[in-house]
Structures are given as C-alpha cells and as structure tokens.
Prior knowledge:
Protein name: Alpha/beta hydrolase
Strand order of the largest sheet: 1-2-4-3-5-6-7-8
CATH architecture of the domain at 61-182 and 220-286: 3-Layer(aba) Sandwich
Pfam families: Abhydrolase_6 (PF12697)
Shape: globular
Keywords: Hydrolase
Oligomer: single chain
Number of helices: 11
Order of helices and strands: HHHEEEHEHEHEHHHEHEH
GO molecular function, one term: hydrolase activity
Amino acid sequence: xxxxxxxxxxxxxxxxxxxxxxxxxxxxxxxxxxxxxxxxxxxxxxxxxxxxxxxxxxxxxxxxxxxxxxxxxxxxxxxxxxxxxxxxxxxxxxxxxxxxxxxxxxxxxxxxxxxxxxxxxxxxxxxxxxxxxxxxxxxxxxxxxxxxxxxxxxxxxxxxxxxxxxxxxxxxxxxxxxxxxxxxxxxxxxxxxxxxxxxxxxxxxxxxxxxxxxxxxxxxxxxxxxxxxxxxxxxxxxxxxxxxxxxxxxxxxxxxxxxxxxxxxxxxxxxxxxxxxxxxxxxxxxxx
Length: 288
C-alpha cells in the first residue's frame, strides 16, 4: 500500500506534552514559564539523516572547525572541487545536507558547495543555540573556506545569511528561501503555538536581550535587508504554514536590489527540492 503523502502546507505541531508543561509553568509563575519557553525556543530537534541526503553526506569532505567567537565547534561539509564556491545554510532543526538537491544542481553547473551543521544541529555538539551563533558560524566559515560567490539560506538560515552580509560577509549574490523576518512576530507565533498569552513573548524577548546583551529586533531580516546592496533573490511559498509569505514579501520590499519568486503548494520544506525553484535559483545566479 502506498504511503500517504505528507501535506506540505500543514504546520508542524508542538507535542501536546510540551504545551501542557508550558501551561502548568504559566500557572505557577511568569518567570518559570518564560524560562521554560526560552529553553524550548533555543533547543532544536536533531533528526536522523534521511536516505535522500546520504549521498551528499558520503561524498562530502567533513571537518570539525572551531568558531572562536562563540566558543563552539561545528561540522562542515565540502561538496565538489570547484573554486567557485556557494555557501548553503540550513534552517532550524535542519542539517548541512538538507539542501542536497540544490547542491547537486550547483555541482552540475561547475560550482562546489560548503555547508555546515549549526551548533546543536546534526553532527555538531550541543543542545541549545540561537541565530547569532548561526551568523558567527557563517563568518568563521568565510575565513576558513572562502571566498564565496553565492550564499543560499533556508528559513532561519536565510535570516542568518542576510544578517551575516550586514556584518561583513562578502558575496556577490544571495538567495533566501522561506526566510523568517521580524523577530517579535517569530516570538509571538512561538508563544501562541505553546498556548501562552502574548505577554509571554515580550518577557521572552527581554530575557534573551538580557542574557545575550543584544537588541533582538536588530536581527530582524528586513532590517538587515535595508543595509544590503548586492542582488538578493527572495523565494517563498504562498502556502507556507511555518513562516507566513508576508515575511518574504516584507524582506523583498526592504531590499535595494531584490527579486521575489513566489510559489504555491510547496510549503516550508518541499520547496527546497522543487525543480522550478532550483531552475529559478540557477537563472538568478547566472545573470550578470
């Protein structure tokens, strides 16, 4: 019997036990639920590498590199031999091989790719991380493996690519797929999925700003977009259940040299393997 297809436009649900635990914490105290929510927010799920990614996993040269600015090590994947390099950045709970279909097409076009398992993801050690560590990893990879011509980021990886460019990452073009945008919107959506009141998202923002000594909105993708001059292709699905298409549109509106490509019915992850999407990426890369 054929397996039932997974609906790409259906949002991944938070397990009921976590939602129940969040509500119990909220009943006890605001401080406790904020601490609990912060832990869940910064803890990615490590998924087993699916069979479709095993070829890239096997053929890549994998190295463990140290990122001094965050005092953590990450696993990198060098795929192909060309000096024309493309950096691939996965999203939350993703892996360095997740963009394998894009990587394979890039290799066929004469590029090589470098990707990585962000802290607490894939084969990299740790249990918690945050976007600033994705950005730090990108900047360190540029030092050790660059220069890169192109960077392609999915979801949180897209936000990280835009922020890394703002922070000095030098590339010729960038592609962001299903990227999140406004940090407060992300926190609001997260706390809503936990069944918590909106005020908890504000406490969560304050807690992160206190712990990491940052202003959270500084990491919003649209703010980074405003400071970017290179060509950026924004790809987003109209039916993305994880990150609303309004995020992609808003990023595009704030770019000086942006292009927008919207799809239908591909959701948040299936979009990475769609041939029309990959064709659009290759066309964008080849434009002088």
